[in-house]
Amino acid sequence: MGAPQTLTRPLAERVAGLPEVVEHTDSPAIPQAVIDAAVQALADGKTHYTDRPGILGLRKWVTEYLQQRFNVALTPNDVTITCGATEARFVTIKRLVKAGEKILCPGDAITIAGAAHLVGTMIVRQANDPAGIRLLYITPHDSFDMLHPFLELATQYGWWIAYDLADAPSDLTFHPAQNLALASKVVSMGSLSHIMPGWRVGWMAGSEMADKLRAYKQSMTICTTSVSQWAGMGVVDK
Amino acid sequence: MTLLNPNIPESVRAVAADGTQLRYALMELSAQYKDAIALGRGDPDLATPPHIISAVQDAIRQQRTALTPVAGMTELRQALAKKFQLENGLSVEADNIMLTTGGQEGLFLLMQTLLDPGDEVLVPDPRYTSYDEAIESAGAKMVMIPTDHDDAFNLRPEAVEAAITPKTKALLIVTPSNPTGGIVTEERLREIAKIAIQHNLIVISDEIYEKFVYDGWKHFSIGSLPGMEERTITLNGFSKTYAMTGFRCGFVAAPKNFVQAMTKVKAVTTGPVATISQWAGLAALTGSQEPIREFHRIYSERRQVMMDGLLDMGLSFSEPRGAFFLWTDCSSVGMHSTELSYLLLKEAQVLIFPGTGFGENWGGYLRISILQTTDLLKEALVRMRPVLEKYRAISG
Hints:
The structure holds two protein chains of two kinds. Chain A is an alpha/beta fold. Chain A is 35% helix and 13% strand. In chain A, α1 (32-43) crosses α7 and α3 (84-96) crosses α6. Chain A is globular. In chain B, α5 crosses α9 and α11 packs parallel to α13.
């Protein structure tokens, strides 16, 4: 009997059209603080589930980052630690956008194309049908001049906003949640992958749907790898 | 569901109909009780074996933490293929294996890869309700297959066959079972395999508790049977076997085209499993298996303590043949199990999940975990007794 090749039933239609997997196996040198924190966490037996939202220290760091950098005030209860920014992006799209609805992505959509396809949503670059748009996905690389009219439409049409800070430059100061009319609709997301990519630590924070986003993440992966979270403290403590 | 006790907090009452959220609400409530004994969550209290810890520390110190391929590192997939061949009788190679961020993600990914809206999945009842979310997230529908106390919560082939419709695409088998501790015996699995082949069903076999079966019962993998290799998706993980839930490392064995498609889904939903977790998995699999034997001895002893204690309090159960739980009939106490769970937490500081955390029809059951030390289990039994007696007396 040979190894099984093909399932006897067709696969789900949604998997047809998913992008081919692009592997990323390079890594920067991991800072000694991360190594020390991880080795210590292992020695301390931190090898079981963490709290569902993620460890408090890491969530506090996210709130401090958003407060100090952008003057956006959230509490640790608004933050969930995820398996990289990839999970944060997928959970946000899955939970906030229904199949058939549209995501407006004026910039590069490569990081969300697969998630959007899986959920059955369409990515558009222009707001020609604003009533059909459910989510505005933006990154720090989108110019404010380009974003300004879209943010006005977001207010008008009640769109959700995903602000992806995974690749944010260090001098960035703009954040859509600075506009209080939008704040409850903005999900911020980011990761520590630029420092420790193989450890899979990301985060999502904010919006009036924060609890539901967290519940969906829990239904997928329960919590993020414990030792990775403690290792992440080695980065943020510095 | 109407909960009569007005003292039940809104945080529990509001989610009483959602098994998963109910369990989390009770866990959050129990955090308010400093001295609570947690017999709820299925997280082994035992320490991860030291050789696994050392191996991961070595990998970290040597900076072997770069991202792996999305499906997992080759050496671990090869080791898992060998494990499936030797222990489970599956004819698989490394390309049939995929690593997942825990068994729960395995479920999510395989349902996304397999199911279209409108498809039906046969699910044994009671069940771990995370299956609900994974299935419903793919737009498919669960169809319950009843199991019962008198049959030790084994799966009846005739009940499976009776539930099949033209929309049925898959059958979920969970052996040993969470929450019942029942196993699906080899004899029944052979009959169920014939039904699966006859009706062209995919079998999803969740075997995450395979290492913990008791009283001479044997675990059996349905994917090893002739004609099943191309229609079985086997789900498993390191969390329960090696007491390493926090590493979030599960694995799936399936036909190659399915693994390839599932890898694409994983790439856009969570990415690869954390590299350190894969090193932990490799160390677990290739290192000494003595810790599992020791864990088994410990769990067997605890199981006996809990069974004796519950019987002494007049509670009944089907002796669990596997896993970490006693699925306990509490109907003699005379109240809904959600209320009883709340009262046990409030008055005895013992956290136990109600049966409705595992299906809406199980208001007369509790799921009691044995994942505490023997001393704490005995203490929990001492605390529970007066509460049960009090409410039994009130209910007459």
